[in-house]
Specification:
With 286 residues, the chain is an alpha/beta fold. It contains ten helices and seven strands. It is rod-shaped, with a radius of gyration of 37 Å.
Length: 286
């Protein structure tokens, strides 16, 4: 920023030099720096040349004021105006240092670290695919059922007023998240369709559907519940957890005969139903 003044500072009055050569230009410079700091982060390649220019300008302003002050005193002027000018220059220097220090810190600040919760959400979301069809009538889910699925599914459902159906292709996953997904489907009376293998916890959101169907080649797989960290979670009663989910199947019209055997397969394997068995059990609706 270059200020061109025709007045000679040694001949102009001290107030004239102070306001037109020092105070007003300095306020304009500090205001511009504050605006820049609030809107952008200056890279070092631009920051340091600007800092050098500002130091040169401020030094020139100090010299101009000092010459005018000397002339003012030599002309038998009072010292009050001179000391007032010195105080103003000191304040301006302090504000300048603080402003440039803030800009420098911003320029050298490390990149913002991703929050732990955001990182976990991103990593969990990478294990599945959840998206709406182009016409907004179908929510397609593929992959592992894990933390954050219900929240994302709810947000997509809220954004799609014409959503009618949920397709599922999943080996299962977190049982509590599957229950949340199932609750969303049941409350909104969405239809469900197994688009591929829908096994383990995936069967919960499937059976929550208002109308349920299997795509060609799709299968439903069941097994007993198991804990990955059974020693760390002794308070969890697997039988009680299975009974909770049996109640959902019962409420959705699944036959008692099937309910008596749905968890018979060992947790290390899967019991896949033929399409006819799924229809006879009431898992697939007419």
């Amino acid at each position: 920023m270059v200020v061109i003044m025709r007045t000679n500072p040694t001949s102009a009055s001290l107030p004239h030099v102070f306001w037109l050569w020092v105070a007003l230009p300095r306020m304009a410079i500090l205001g511009a720096l504050a605006l820049i700091g609030a809107s952008v982060t200056l890279p070092a390649l631009i920051l340091y040349p600007l800092l050098t220019v500002d130091i040169v300008i401020f030094g020139w302003q100090v010299v101009c004021f000092q010459r005018s002050a000397d002339a003012h005193v030599a002309g038998h002027g009072g010292m009050a105006a001179v000391w007032g000018g010195y105080l103003a220059l000191l304040v301006a220097a302090g504000l300048g240092v603080a402003t440039w220090w803030g800009l420098t810190l911003d320029a050298h600040a490390p990149p913002e670290q991703e929050l732990f919760t955001d990182r976990m959400d991103r990593e969990h979301a990478a294990t599945y695919r959840l998206e709406l069809s182009q016409d907004g009538t179908t929510l397609m889910f593929e992959g592992a059922i894990t933390f954050g699925l219900t929240r994302r599914a709810t947000a997509l459902a809220d954004s799609a007023p014409h959503l009618q159906r949920v397709t599922l292709d999943s080996p299962g996953g977190h049982i509590y998240e599957a229950r949340g997904f199932a609750k969303l489907i049941r409350q909104r009376r969405f239809d469900t369709q197994a688009a591929g293998d829908c096994s383990s916890a995936c069967t919960l959101p499937f059976v929550a559907g208002h109308r349920r169907s299997l795509a060609p080649g799709a299968r439903l797989g069941f097994h007993q519940y198991a804990l990955n960290f059974d020693n760390a979670l002794p308070q969890i009663d697997l039988k009680k957890e299975q009974d909770k989910d049996r109640a959902l199947f019962r409420d959705q019209g699944v036959s008692q005969t099937f309910l008596d055997t749905m968890f018979n397969a060992p947790s290390t394997g899967l019991w896949y139903l033929a399409n006819s068995e799924a229809r006879d059990a009431g898992l697939v609706t007419p």
